[in-house]
Amino acid sequence: MRAILLVLVGLTVSTASLAADTLARVRETGVLRLGFRADAPPYSYRAADGGPLGYIVDLCREVARGIGKSLDKPDMKIVFTEVPSAARLESLRDGKIDILCDPTSMTMSRRALVDFSLPTFIDGAGVLYRTGGVHRLEDLSGKKIGVLRGTTTEDTLKTTLAQLGIEVGIFPMQSHPDGIRSLSEGKIDAYFGDRGILSYYLRNSQNLAGIKLAEQYYTFETYALALPRDDSKLRLLVDATLADLYRTDAVKGLYARNFGNYPPDQFIRALFVINGVPN
């Protein structure tokens, strides 16, 4: 039994060591693989021409430049791979991508699968609704509610409604556009999601007359880039790049490019200051 246990421990350590050698693999292959979402604007989404766009995608591009410079590989190839929301962390865990560039919330349970960089953004759950005002969760009693499948918003919504004894019909969606479409067609009465994403769709979608975004935040969540577990060299390089962007105010240009005339609020300004860690 002891011999078997030692073999299993050895295999675990060996596997972890291989999985944690991202920079060595990039140095050897000359390729950095970045995962992005197609449906999470303004953070991570697919543009009309098919290319990846968004604030967190732009942060990842800066990180990629830092990696190429650190490895002395100016010709390093950056490959963007679209990942579905419900399987994005598994894509990273299974080695299909090297960095996840999307609005993923840091949680302790997710740290069992992946590591996280310094924070990239602070947002929270909001709700789009089509009939009547939504001032409290109790206002949703008896309604049909949509939410993106496999997200912290879905988990928190189900737990909170159960604790409050509020009975609703919950309809998990495969993508945000599916949820917005179901709301506009009257198939659901409200749609929960990250408030920044909902606000983007409300401003940029057609056929949303009569649909409003509730002012209330139902959660506060901290986004970060998801990284392979136990890869301290990669994590240090990613964090150093982000800290430099925050400390030098270079991040403000990226922010303006993606959020336009909407200046960073007090939470985002605090994030930049707190995480502008000196060299």
UniProtKB/TrEMBL annotation:
One Pfam entry for this protein is SBP_bac_3
Q: Where is the Solute-binding protein family 3/N-terminal domain?
A: 31-262
Which InterPro entries does this one have?
Answer: Bact_solute-bind_prot3 (IPR051455), Solute-binding_3/MltF_N (IPR001638)
**Got a GO cellular component term for this one?**
extracellular region
Please list which residues make up the signal peptide. 1-19
Segments traversing the membrane: none
* GO biological process annotation, one example: amino acid transport
User: Per its UniProt record, what Gene3D superfamilies does this chain match?
Assistant: Periplasmic binding protein-like II
CDD domains assigned:
PBP2_GltI_DEBP (cd13688)
Q: Enumerate the UniProt keywords alphabetically.
A: Signal, Transport
Q: Does the keyword Signal apply?
A: yes
Q: Which family does it belong to?
A: Belongs to the bacterial solute-binding protein 3 family.
Name used for this protein in its record = Polar amino acid transport system substrate-binding protein
State the taxonomy lineage: Bacteria, Pseudomonadati, Pseudomonadota, Alphaproteobacteria, Hyphomicrobiales
